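User: I'm curious whether this sequence folds into something compact or stays loose and floppy. Could you predict its structure so I can see for myself?
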Amino acid sequence: MRIKPTHNNLQEWIEIYVPEKDLFFLPEDGLSEIDLSGVIIMPTDEFFNHSTYKQINYVNSYLYWNIKNAHYVIIAEKNWIERISAEERKLIFSYQINSKRGLVVPITFVDEIDKIPSDYIINQNIIIQSAMWEKLERSVKEQLLSKMVFEWWDDGDCKPLPNSMYSFLNPYANTFSNKQGANCLAAVLFAISGGKQEWFIHEWIYQKSFIETLKQYKYYEFTGDCIKKDDVVVWQDKNQVIQHAAYYIGDGLFFNKDGQTIFNPWKIIKEEHLYKYWEHLTPIIYRIK
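Assistant: Here's the prediction. I'll summarize afterward.
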C-alpha cells in the first residue's frame, strides 16, 4: 500500500515549513557586491553553534547537513530580500542554489509556475523565502509540499497494519508527523514504553539518551542473530555510531521511521527491506530481559 500526507498534515506543514527569518548562505567572497545594511552577517562556524539557529525548524527546513562552500550567513527579516535590487537578489539566490541549502526546489514541483513570483525563479529552481511563501496561494503550497515528499523523501510504500500489532501503535503507524524533529530513536522508545509515554515519539533523541533509556526498560544487547517480537534492532557504523533503529512487531515487520523531518512518516515495513537498506552497517539486537 501507499500512503500520502493528509489534508491536516499539509495545513500544518504550510505553517511550519518556512521559518520566519530568512537565512542566506554565502561563499567567502560573497559579501562585496551586496548592500548588507539591516541584516546580521554571521560566520558559519559561529552560526552553526548559535542557540537560536540550531532549533530544529531551521535545521530541517534549510537542510544544514547538505550545505556546501558557505563561509557566511545573512540573517534577515522576511521583507529584506524584497527591498534590495533585483541584481543583488538574483546574486544571492544563485548562491543559495550553489550552497545546496534547503528551501530550493525545481520548478517541476509546481504545475502553474506563473503563480510563483518571477524574481524567485533562478536557473529552473524556485527559491523559497518567508515573505514569498506567505503570499503564495494555499493550493500551490499544498502541491509543492506533496510533490516534495514523493520526489525527495518517501514514496509512501508500506505494509498494511497487521491485526497482531499493538493497538498503541495504530495512531502513528503509516502516518506523517505534524512536528519537526521526531526521529527513529524516539519512535523506538515510544514503542518499548508500550505507548505509555506518548510524548517520547515526538522527541529528537540522541544516541547516549537512547541507550540509557533502553537500559531503563531492561533491554540488553543480544548476541544471537534471530529476532523476535518486541526486539529493537540498531544499525551501527564502524565508529559505533547508531545510524538507525527500529522496533520489531513480529511477522517479519518493523515499526520504523526514517529521518527527523515532517516528510519522513512512521511506517510498517518488511524486515528484508530494512536490512537491505542498511546492509552497509552492522545490525545489533536489543532484547528485553
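Summary: The chain has ten helices and twelve strands. The two ends are 35 Å apart (CA to CA).
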